[in-house]
Amino acid sequence: MSAQVQSDVSLKPFNTFGIEVKAQHFAQAHSDDEVRELLAHAAARQWPVLVIGGGSNLLLTADIQALVLRMASRGIRVVADDGQQVIVEAEAGEPWHPFVQWTLDHGMAGLENLSLIPGTVGAAPMQNIGAYGVEIKDVFVGLTALDRQTGEVCEFDLQACGFAYRDSVFKRSPGRWLILRVRFALSRVTQLHLDYGPVRQRLSEQGIDQPSAQDVSAAICSIRREKLPDPAELGNAGSFFKNPVVPAVLAEHIRLTHPALVGYPQADGQVKLAAGWLIEQAGWKGYRDGDAGVHQKQALVLVNYGQASGGQLHGLAQKIQRDILERFGVALEMEPNLY
Ligand code: FAD
Ligand code: NAP
Q: Which residue numbers delimit the FAD-binding PCMH-type domain (predicted)?
């Protein structure tokens, strides 16, 4: 077998929360052949398999009694280019942000609002990653995945992925699909999305009134660096809770006591509330219990100050969930994947 399987491997370097747990078995797959070899190796020994990418959306609460298979396949290729639209395919193990930069460097727009999101290309469809008004579903063409139940390689188009807010068919069937590579439709004719949050304002502060996709990416990177903790310095998994979408009547009820409530009306008549705003109003921003805490600048981000366990972070998350439910009648759903 070309891939190496190691035993009792610390996963601390492989999850951005920096949680110290061990994988009973650990291997990296650089190709489809290595993926197949490793799955067969695990099946022959009746080991469960947990597939990971960059570990930036995981909350690990115990040692993983399985083969942890980290996707490390690399490669970016242009599949079609008619001078206006370009179809680009990237292997699952490609780190996301450098891939976004590669597309921008090659004059392709579409992924700029998704700059500086950690993780890998292969994990991006899992929760239909989104930021600053764009989700990957907006530029998605298709992906190739291995059905771990049958061993078949399957093609998914946009519809088959069932993308929704931080959700997909892959997230709804945990452990079934192993994403091998993903294709995006990008544009040589720039159509920018600037109307979300402080993007336009940041550009105008920089004196840029006719921005390129590269300018938008740079502005978003600068906003994110100011607001979000860098996992290399402070362990975290980004937003810990999804923004809850609630009936308009509940939003109006909360607004009676909290007139400054932040809410965004949705097409279906419901209202998306900013979970970070609710958590901040409840007084959790900057809270710390041992090494588990709520980030000082962004209440939606839980942080590990060093030695917090996954259980401690999960316990803190559950306290916040109970408090928000009692105060506002809103159920917060965790975003990271719990193992
Ligand atoms: P992992 O954490 O390794 O895995 C996540 C899930 O996907 C797991 O269930 C895993 O089993 C599964 N998985 C991984 N790879 C594959 C594969 N190839 N095939 C099948 N299953 C797989 N997310 C956003 O949506 N928007 C943001 O703006 C954003 N900002 C963030 C900022 C910070 C600072 C951090 C730490 C996180 C942020 N995230 C954001 C969350 C996270 O970066 C994304 O969800 C990212 O796509 C996770 O990629 P990963 O490779 O690290 O996945
Ligand atoms: P923000 O700009 O302070 O906004 C707070 C929340 O309000 C966001 O979560 C966003 O929801 C929502 N919002 C803001 N403007 C909106 C608009 N014009 N229309 C609809 N909804 C709007 O948020 P932030 O924390 O700094 O994050 C900025 C962006 O990066 C957001 O899109 C956020 O989702 C993304 N992000 C995601 C993660 C993650 O781990 N998932 C981590 C960091 C940042 P949405 O979240 O639905 O966009």
A: 19-189
